[in-house]
Amino acid sequence: MLALVFALSSGIIGGLLVAALPAARTRLRNMVVLFFTGSGMICSWLVARQVWAGERLRFAGQLGGLTFCLDPDPLGIVFGLIAATLWFFTVVYSLGYMAGKAHQRTYYAFLLVAFSATLGVAFSGNLVALYLFYELLTLTTYPLVIQERSPEAMQAGTKYLLYNLAGAAVLLLAIVLTAAWGGRLDFVGGPILAAGLKTGLNWLLFLFTVGFGVKAALLPLHRWLPAAMVAPTPVSALLHAVAVVYAGVYGLLRVVYSVFGTTLLGELGFAALIPWVAAGTVLVGIIVATQQDILKRRLAYQTISHLSYILLGAFTLHPWGLAGAVLQMIGYAVLKTAFFFCAGIIAEQTGVTRVSQMGGVGRSLPKTMVAFAVVTLGMIGMLPLGTFWGKFYLMKGSVAGGKWPLALVLIGSGIINAVCFIPVVVRAFRDENKRLSITERGVRVTLMLVPTMLLVVVGLGMGLFPGMVWPAVQAVVDWFF
Amino acid sequence: MTTLIRANLPVLVVIAPLFVAFILPPLARRIRLVEALALLGAVLGLGGAGYLASIVLTQQENPFIYQLGGWPAPWGIELVAGSLGVFFLLVVGVSVPVLLFAQGNLAAEVGGAERVTRFYVLYLLLVGAMAGMAVTNDMFNVYVLVEVATLSCCGLVSARRYPRAAEAAFTYLILATLGSALVLGGIGLIYLITGHLNMGFAAQELSRVWLARPHVVLMAVSLIVVGFGVKAALFPLHVWLPDAHSTAPSPASAILSGLAVKGYLICLVKFLYGVFGPTLLQEFAVHRILTLLGGVGIITGSILALTQEELKRRLAYSTVAQVGYLILGFGLLNVTGLAGALFYLASHAVIKATLFLAAGAMLAATGKRNVRDLAGVGRKMPITMAAFTIGSLGLIGLPLFSGFIGKWYLLLGSWEAGLILPAVAILAGSVLCAAYLLPVIRAAYFAPAPEEDWPDPGRPQKLALLLLAAAVVILGVRPGPFLELAQKAAAELLAFY
Amino acid sequence: MSGLLTKVLINYPYLVAVLLFTIGTFTVLTHPNLFKKLLGINIMESAIFLMFVASGNIRGGVAPIRGTTNAEAVYINPLPSALMLTGIVVSVSVTAFALALIMRLYKAYGTTDLRRIAARRKEVISDDHLDQG
């Protein structure tokens, strides 16, 4: 219980502390940031152990006539652990990446508060709490998006904010309707909506899909994501692989398994449509990605594509599909974060931001490029990496759920991923004569390189020993089926 | 003594501010004393309201009925402090922090120390009239109080003597008088067919005779809705509001936008539900018209607010939009929706007062009216901007702030009424609200600050801002008696439906 | 037809009230001159007063003063008249206040015509901050 409260509050406390510290006290601030993200991560793991041991950590309060409750279940734990762990890596990376840049105090303060918001989304036990943290996440990540303060960043920030607030407004309507129809908003005790009341449920599902779909960058609602690439690289990593988009995906998983339930969804016409929308997003996202020259934009469109893997798995409504979705969630988060870290190192060290300029980077930054290459294999879904198992179970689930064409979509997407990223790696290692000037070495580079390497190692580990993450996945599947 | 006070409480809360207002002018030279007395008058009103609320909430007496001069109801004038009345009396308490704010910098705001006393007189008259509207149960009394309020509002708008303000005050005066004439006409028609001016008796009589004279009743409903609509800036009758609320001195803007508009809306509720009754409203489809106007008002007001460069005008147009939420809720014709609208009324009173006061403090410190010129103000005036931010988040309707609860019940109410479009309007309004308020915050915090020194305002002003900002949060986290009173009031108003 | 006509003739005070109200409202909303607007408001209010007072009247009734009439006499309803006294007081104060505002506007713009005020607003706005006592 204490662990839960501390896991949630560590970010907020740390954020306030950072805001209170004078801007010049860099070292002290770095210590505070590390301490609070680290303790938040440790507390999240403690919470996870308790939940896996079968304990219920319910923390409820009244919020103006509405019940507000925190109640982590195995699915929330998976998201919470991904967020807490990768947040710590990102913070370490940020210490290197952000060193010497402007507006650091604002950056770290909001980075920490956003940490709390993300954990809040993960550990919330009803839709009210989820909505609260969801909105908080939007607002606290906004200053991170406009970190550069350039006109372009400001524009992207406005787009980000308006898309997400509009999505949250739709979500609020959906939540109100759920409260009116279902009579409760808690996630415990099975799906909220009972089978049998059918009129309007398709619309409700539509509202939920739009509401969470904005953050999950589902296809026509994705425009803010590529725009938000102006943010610093660690923020992009958080936005894309950990916090924001995952909050949307997590919300949709919640809608499927806690609000509607698989039985009810099986009867809804709109629910049958969503996997195909997701499949479309998978293909269109990755095809658009191949057209992009700016590396970060290429990664952004690839995110749009890969998030829909998870949705596709969730909407197969089959245990294997869910297992695949959860595995994909874990594996993809780790590798995508590493992917962004690599892109960030390349940009910081050599100034290369475009795919067409990549020649010679492999020679200049061999470690980074090797990591990049390994991650590329993961994105395709090849074996020694964790994402393989995700994809494997997703395919298994699609076939078992009676939607075998989805498996073909996944295979196709893997091939296009290869087309998209292998040439980048090849080009980076080709132009051997061209040597790029490297601006920096030293602590700053180490701080960026170490988390990247560690993440790649974790990704490899999960591929070689899938048993390491399987208990968490098993817990989620057992919880809902 | 205490028993005497307790027995006369409903009239005392009205008389206290009025009495203080009338003893101020001879003391005009001793500004300190005037300030202290003015604050005392408002605080006494709020204290009485709190005491009355405790009596009504604990069901010692609900409603608390008071007969003026001891004359019984159909002949004498009745004051009724029921849930609705007590609820609005508590909302009138917003006047205390606003008054506190005014004391910091009023001479500069109204342009001259000799006008300070006049400002306080008008202010307290307005507060007294609002308190009167909360408790009165007599239709002609409503008219008189509405006129007192209108005149003091116009006086407040023109307190500072620049020509724009005089122009705005004149437009306001003419349109508001037009509105009260319509209201008086409506009251006259009701009196003609029922023979009563007491709301309760008129309602009883109306339910008996309206079938015989449907046209007269329809005429009366229209006159009253349009009449109060003009005064409460119900879209599309809002034309006077932006000028009046943006040219007034800042404390006056806060009280006009936060409170004065709400008084007329409470009167409208009293007439719609207390006199005509829900059945009659449904018969004439008045509720649908209200919801429609409310929804259109939300969208149009917000879009107009979005196009304003000047901060105070933006806030003024936002008031037009927010009145739309209330009108929309009044038309939903169910307890949830009405309770939501009433709670939203309280929430908006606090929030708009916060926003206008913060905007006023920024205007006073920087001399800049436009949003664009306020870049960097967040770091120069941290407390002011913090209050502004809290107010904005509340107005957008984020959870943990008071606006959220109001919107939640309004949404539930529109679902209960089986309508989806009002819900869409409510949510679109929230997003538009974010679109017109967040740029202010963005400029204040994330834009480079200029060299000039813009200090936070003085201590009483900071205290007032913090009090109001705290109220926004407290209402959002622990709405307690407010939500309870709003729900009770809604249930009582719709009891016979 | 004759029935309707009789009805209208019997209720002529109300008919006049409606007429006055229309004239007043029309003047307020359409006339650009501030004084005319104020006059319109006054006409409009008189219409309402007329309606109220007429509602209290009973043809052939006498003023309800005790001890001056015999017991069978029909009293008119004195309440509306009493209310309208208050109404007139309110109307007078509105008029006074409006006149003060008109004077202030005249001093600032040199005209009482709204169209000209709108035309001159630009010039006067520039010294908005100059308070004129």
Question: Short description, anyone?
Answer:
The complex is a heterotrimer of chains A (481), B (497) and C (133). Chain A has helices at 2-20, 26-52, 74-97, 104-123, 127-145, 151-182, 201-215, 224-227, 233-242, 244-260, 262-267, 269-291, 295-314, 319-350, 361-364, 366-380, 387-400, 404-430, 443-464, 470-480, and strands spanning 59-63, 66-70.
Q: What is the count of structural domains of chain C?
A: 1
Domains counted in the coordinates of chain A: how many? 1
Largest sheet of chain A: 2 strands, antiparallel
Tell me, briefly, the overall form of chain C: elongated
Helix content of chain A: over 70%
Give the helix tally of chain C.
5
Biggest pleated-sheet summary of chain C: none
Radius of gyration of chain A: 21 Å
Largest interface: B-C, 30 and 39 residues
- Number of DSSP strand runs of chain A: 2
Question: Structural class of the secondary structure composition of chain C?
Answer: mainly alpha
Distance between the termini of chain C: 63 Å
Task: Give the uncertain stretches of chain A in residue-range form.
Answer: none
The class by helix and strand makeup of chain A works out as mainly alpha
Q: Helical content of chain C, roughly?
A: over 70%
What's the CATH class of chain C, please?
Mainly Alpha
Q: Which architecture name of chain C does CATH use?
A: Orthogonal Bundle
Mean pLDDT level of chain C: 83
Structure description:
The complex is a heterotrimer of chains A (481), B (497) and C (133). With 481 residues, chain A is mostly helical. Chain A has one domain (2-480). Chain A is 75% helix and 2% strand. In chain A, β1 and β2 (66-70) form a beta hairpin. The model of chain A has no long low-confidence stretch (mean pLDDT 86). Chain B has a domain at 334-497. In chain B, α4 (83-92) crosses α22, α10 runs antiparallel to α12 (250-276) and α16 runs antiparallel to α19. Chain B starts with a helix and ends with a helix. Chain C has a single domain (2-125), classed as Helix Hairpins, CATH 1.10.287.3510. Chain C has helices spanning 2-10, 12-30, 34-56, 79-109, 114-125. Residues 126-133 of chain C have low confidence and may be disordered. The chains are: A mainly alpha (481), B mainly alpha (497), C mainly alpha (133). Chains in contact: A-B, B-C.
